Amino acid sequence: MHGTEENPWTYTWEDLAKTDINGKEYKYTIDEVETPENYGKSKSEDGKTITNTYKIRETEITGRKIWQGGPTPPRPTIKLQLYRDGEPFDDPVELKDGKTSHTWKVDRTDINGKEYEYTVDEVEVPENYKKLDSENETEVINQYVSPKTSITGTKVWEGGPSKRPIIELQLYRSVDNVTKEKVGKPIQLEDGQTKYTWEGLDLTDQKGVEYKYTIDEIKTPNNYRKSISEDGLTITNRYRPPTPPGPGPGGPTDPDKPEPEDPEKPTDPEDPDKPDKPKEEDPEDPKDPEEPENQEKRNQTSQQIQKIMKNQKNQNQKSQINQKNQQ
Questions:
Q1: What is the DSSP letter of 313?
Q2: Helix or strand or coil: residue 90?
């Protein structure tokens, strides 16, 4: 049989002996054979009423914080709130210095034995994090979200024609200057444009380490020399006028300008040979047959010497002209 608090259970024993054989009156009391689980037992003074009081059992609820990404250490200080049947229970607790859990000791049921439902949530989501759904209602997951930044690249021209060539700039990022990776596609600077700003860039990687952004041009324009600033965000192109080719060894020559040649220097006329006057005393003696031949050899030697001197002079003048052109 069962009873309630409003309608207690009762039972009446009938036809009981009131006294013993000597007429001494009995005193009757009751007791329960076994006290129900989770109940305490008490008796009334007359011993005829037994009261079972429900003993609310305690339980432990542990709230856990899970971090995904972000700087470590330190972690932000957060507050966890315990809820019972959807209502805040007790005050929020703080998790500091990377602490990731807290345990509450609470009643498992109400006075009627109905179990409570406990959940845990954070009071406020930390900056640069978002809260993810979890299958465990006492678990809070925060995923790191990098703050955003903007980067401006600058192009500087030094000298050169006023009409600037079109250039392409590529944005790069790296962590601790280790490995550079491209960010997006190259952009073009046209019609003398000298700046470009990239918006909505991640300030850090998923571990919260700040990126270093730099730029570079895809190809340096002809007749320009490239230099990059220390912060890697300014590219300077310095104009270098093209150098005309010279007539050096193997170099091209101007077909419209023939190389000047020295005019031939006239040679002094040779003295005519004077015939030997025959001796009067010996008219019959003939001329020395060898003499005309020797004279001819001397003439040939003189002409060869003059030709060699002329060629040497021409060579010297050509060498002087080449030196002037190279200067």
A1: H
A2: strand
Q: Within the chain, which residue ranges are assigned CATH 2.60.40.1140?
A: 58-144, 148-239
DSSP state of 115: B
Picking from 183, 156, 154, the residue whose alpha carbon sits closest to that of residue 170 is 183
Task: Give the residue carrying structure tokens 């507050």.
Answer: 79
Q: What is the largest CA-CA distance in the chain?
A: 224
pLDDT 10s digits, 2-39: 666 667 889 999 999 999 999 999 999 999 999 998 89
Q: Tell me: the pLDDT tens digits for 105-130?
A: 999 999 999 999 999 999 999 999 99
Task: Assign a CATH topology to domain 148-239.
Answer: Immunoglobulin-like (2.60.40)
* CA–CA separation, 220 and 243 (whole Å): 18
Sign of CA pseudo-dihedral 255, 257, 259, 260: positive
> Is 0.85 topped by the overall pTM?
no
Q: Which CATH superfamily is domain 58-144 in?
A: Collagen-binding surface protein Cna, B-type domain (2.60.40.1140)
- Omega cis (within 30) before 74: yes
User: How many angstroms separate the CA atoms of 125 and 304, rounded?
Assistant: 108
